[in-house]
Amino acid sequence: MSRDITEELLSCAVCNSTRSHQQKEPLQLHPVPDLPWSTLATDIFEWHGKRYLVLVDSYSGWFEIDLLRDVTSSTVITKLKRHFSVFGTPHTLISDNAGHYASQHFKDFAKQWDFVHMTSSPEYPQSNGLAERAVRSAKQLMERSHRDGTDVFLNLVNLRNIPRDLTLGSPAERLMSRQTRAAIPVCTKLLQPNPKDAQLIRTQLLNKRLILKHHYDISSSPLKPLAEGQVIRMQTPK
Q1: Domain range holding 197?
Q2: What pLDDT, on a 0 to 100 scale, did the predictor assign at position 18?
């Protein structure tokens, strides 16, 4: 009897169209990179009516902010090239599926510059959580600078020198093995290269991601795999 009811509900178009969202699945983590500037994530955000590009390094947490005159592939690529020319070409670049990243122009750019372009799941920003967190940090920094009347890029230099903890150090230390000179006085010794233990950094980064996954997975559960040829109903974004 219960099986008949279940089959009837599954075949009911009205019932299926008004069903609640499916249970979210456990979070899938991106691998922890072995090197600085090897795995990057990028996104575009709007602040005070203007659009900006953010580019963040998964290993160091170092992020860049660029004002965009438009959001065409050509403009985005030009900004990325400038950063790649300074720090080198990454192995992997993660983005969403927006048109400026999904264009043939961007595919040609990835091929010419020899990096893997990975895209996050549509309508699922958590799959590009690295860029999402960088956007939040960038907006907070820009808003504080705007309200205080201070230089946003000077504040960005200071932010990059702030240690996250004793193991990870600061974004500048993880990316360049040293602090950078800023308005805040710093000991000359800290400006000299002093590489941190890469294995300790990877372990710490992995532990942080596992904690994030643990909290996310509390309200998630695996879904049954789909069979080939199975009829499905897909929920479209509003």
Answers
A1: 39-217
A2: 57
